[in-house]
């Protein structure tokens, strides 16, 4: 499956991605109760540098992401444990088919899943689909300048920082967000893949 120039084409096909420690299930309203519990785990919505829905706001966020998918702008997943318990969300977004680029973003995890094998394996699955199946040239990651935890996690994947988009967007509290942009290039993918596999093996 590759980019084919058709916004309804393979890149937007829902794909179940399964690893040893995580399942990325195509997002569905049935995930709402589990995702509400995941949101409550750590109260991530209270952190001003992140955009985690409140437990009550999870159904609306699922609807928003599914609407973005229907419009050809996003591929949303529920991040689940092997037994199917939802622990967060993630997406492909900012899909640029002519240039075969996309961003892995709008990602959040329950506090209990952070620092485990869940995030690195989820990224391994998403990157493998992007590079090996969709023939991406580059995959981006973006985060708030002040979200140091996220910046460390992205760098730990093997992504390189491209730069900082200053005053890039107006944040929900009215402040101006500086956005840090990272990317992994197609020729860097084999080394990144090996690094992630070694990291998971060590875990």
- Number of H- or I-type helical stretches: 5
Unreliable spans are: none
| Biggest sheet layout | 8 strands, mixed
Sheet/helix structural class: alpha+beta
The CATH H-level superfamily is Gcn5-related N-acetyltransferase (GNAT)
Question: What's the helical proportion of residues?
Answer: 25-40%
Overall structural domain count = 1
Written as H for each helix and E for each strand, in order along the chain, the element string is EEHHEEEHEHEEH
State which percent range the strand residues make up: 25-35%
Quote the average pLDDT: 92
Strand order of the largest sheet: 1-2-3-4-5-6-8-7
Measured distance between first and last alpha carbons: 31 Å
What radius of gyration results from the CA coordinates?
16 Å
Q: What does the overall shape look like?
A: globular
- Using the coordinates above, name the CATH class: Alpha Beta
Count of β-strands: 8
CATH topology: Aminopeptidase
Pfam family, one: Acetyltransf_3
Domain N-acetyltransferase: 22-160
InterPro entries: Acyl_CoA_acyltransferase, GNAT_dom
Protein name: GNAT family protein
